[in-house]
Every structure is written in C-alpha cells, then in structure tokens.
Design brief:
The chain contains four helices and two strands. Strands 1-2 form a two-stranded parallel ribbon. Helix 1 runs parallel beside helix 3.
C-alpha cells in the first residue's frame, strides 16, 4: 500500500455527490454552476476528491436519457 494516490491519517478525502457532477455536465445555466465548477477545479488541484460507484452509476443513469451509447461510453472513459 502507499502509492501516490494513497490516503493516510494526515490526508483529507472529499467525497463528491452525484449532484455536483450533474450540474457540471448538464446544467451550465444553473445558479450554482460557477461555484460548483470552482469546487471541482479546487478538488482537481488538491487531488483529494473521490466518489462512490453508486454515484457514478447514478450519473450514468441520469445522463442515459440524453446521451447515446457512444457518448455514455466516452463519459465513463473520461470520468476518472
């Protein structure tokens, strides 16, 4: 154990819920979009963000109503 992505007692981990990803991916005119985007940028820079498999499947389920199969596959390859 240990690698560069390991989390220990001195490292914080921020677990991100589905809504944050949905706002970022689909609702650019949402009143919270700018704050949401700033949060995701901060998480990306800090490299301490995570989500659950359930959240990832929920994002795919929500977006499946508007994306075709190829777009959904691209989403899952891009998502990490």
């Amino acid at each position: 154990m240990g690698g560069r992505d390991a989390v220990d007692a001195t490292t914080s981990l921020t677990v991100i819920d589905t809504t944050v990803f949905i706002i970022d991916l689909r609702y650019k005119r949402d009143r919270y979009f700018a704050a949401n985007r700033a949060f995701l940028d901060w998480i990306a820079q800090a490299r301490n963000g995570a989500t659950t498999l359930f959240n990832l499947l929920e994002v795919g389920g929500i977006l499946s109503f508007n994306l075709n199969e190829k777009q959904l596959q691209e989403l899952f390859s891009y998502f990490p």
